Amino acid sequence: MKSPRNTLLYIGSVVILVLVVVTFVGVPAVGSFGQGSGSLVFGRYNGEDIAYRPGNFFARQYEIVAQSLRDSSGDLDLELQLRIAWRQAFNRTVLRTALLQQADRSQVRVTEERVDELIAMDPRFQQNGRFDRTAYRNMGNQERFSLRGFHRESEVFDLFVGDVLTGSVASSGEAQFVAGMAGPERSFDIVRFPFDSFPEQQVLAYAEENAELFTEFNLSIVTLGTRDEASRIRSRALEPGNPFGELARTYSRDLYADQSGEIGRLYGYELQQELLDPQDLRHVATLAVGELSEPLETTSGWSFFRAESEPVPFDSTQDEMIREARSYMQMFEQGRIQDFVRREAQEFARGGAGTDLPTAAAGQNRTVHQTPFFPINYGNLQLFTRVNVPGIPDLQDAAYRDTFFITAFSLDPGEISEPVMLRQSAVVLSLRDEREADEDTMAYLQEYYDSIRGQLQSDEVESTYVNEDRLEDNFVRVFNRYVLGQS
Fold it and tell me: Using CA atoms, how far apart are residues 362 and 353, in angstroms rounded to an integer?
């Protein structure tokens, strides 16, 4: 048998072989895949294999993408071309599978007469413009069966997608209206008040008020299914000669059983998240070294803990503990941080009344960010200039907040806005300039609106019908092993 690294792209098509050149290390022979007769399974969607087989949809899509890459991306690394071609073919097959499953649930059907018509129009059976019955009959029974299945599925797919994508036709008025949404465009001066500027003094105050949350514990655990079971095993753990670790390995049902029950060090707030009654944290915090807790209800069942060492209380001189407290507040006390930042931004905006934003910012030594021009582009649609400023990483989030656009596009020249809350900051804006949309942009949108609209609808179809939770994606592992021949 040829080795995988010498059997280049032997999957059934000379076209593929031409694409990647004979010197590239690539795909092993189909027979060596070991995943079924002549097939290579890259994953599953809702229980259905996403598989490459010579001549099937996946294989045809691969050939189409590979040919396109060869024609337009000759400067790409050959391995990268392979990866792109296989991945795009995989993605298209996932989408097709999802849509066919939806079509089946919607009871979209194709008659056998229609399948006959499609086969009669298949170029492989055309001879001087007429259907060549001999060529068709010379096919094997299995091949004819597969061909009918392919045409049947393709017609169902086309009918379903056609209904979804071409159910309505854009009018010239619609194209003109959408083109008009490209303007007016505005640019702004922006001052940002990030959440991570929340004062350390307030972090320390919160941590000291909630010291148990930021105390470090060193614990072991045994978890059982019921309180009675936990009580019984706890009683055995109190008897001489019954090592805690052995009982954990034998009876515990949590992730720490193989570690003899040892959790290791964790903060109080991490432990509290596992306790169904948060007040039980105080009980664990009072344990002496070697002492066992009462059975406590946790997210994994009923557990009892053993203290392995003295707790390490929160220490305001330890940078690591301060960082931990700040991280906790950013996750679980964000409202407190938001309130502080909003007040800070409001004071800045009101203090700047009667002057312009750059002057107010200079007075407080704050950075002013200048945005490019953009229109009211709610959702950052690809049709229009997107809301994006490198110095403000969460400004893209503003494109999904109507309050941002209402505030920004209601500003008069020289006016400083009220704060707008983003995902990780508050921002204050002032208008720099306004202009109408570029005429070339308007003309482009009107001329190509139908194709742009179709692409947007296609993207919407994919997001609507492909459920990521139903997809088992093994592409990387299978591609590396069976296509590149890497172990």
Answer: 14
Q: Which of 432, 431, 428, 433 is nearest to 364 (CA)?
A: 428
**216-307 classified as CATH 3.40.630.40:** no
Q: What is the pLDDT of residues 7-27, one digit of tens each?
A: 223 233 322 322 332 222 233
Q: What is the DSSP string of 447-487?
A: HHHHHHHHHHHHHHHHHHH--GGGEEE-HHHHIIIIIS---
Return the CATH fold of 185-197+335-436.
Chitinase A; domain 3 (3.10.50)
Nearest Cα neighbor of 418 from 432, 428, 410, 430 is 428
Span 439-456, pLDDT tens digits = 888 887 777 766 666 656
Residue 152 — pLDDT band, cuts 50, 70, 90? confident
Rounded to whole angstroms, the Cα distance separating 219 from 141 reads 67
Q: How far apart are CA 152 and CA 50, in angstroms?
A: 18
Bond preceding residue 390 cis, omega within 30 of 0: no
Percentages (nearest 5) of helix, strand, coil residues in the chain: 50, 15, 35
Contact by Cβ (8 Å): 385, 373: yes
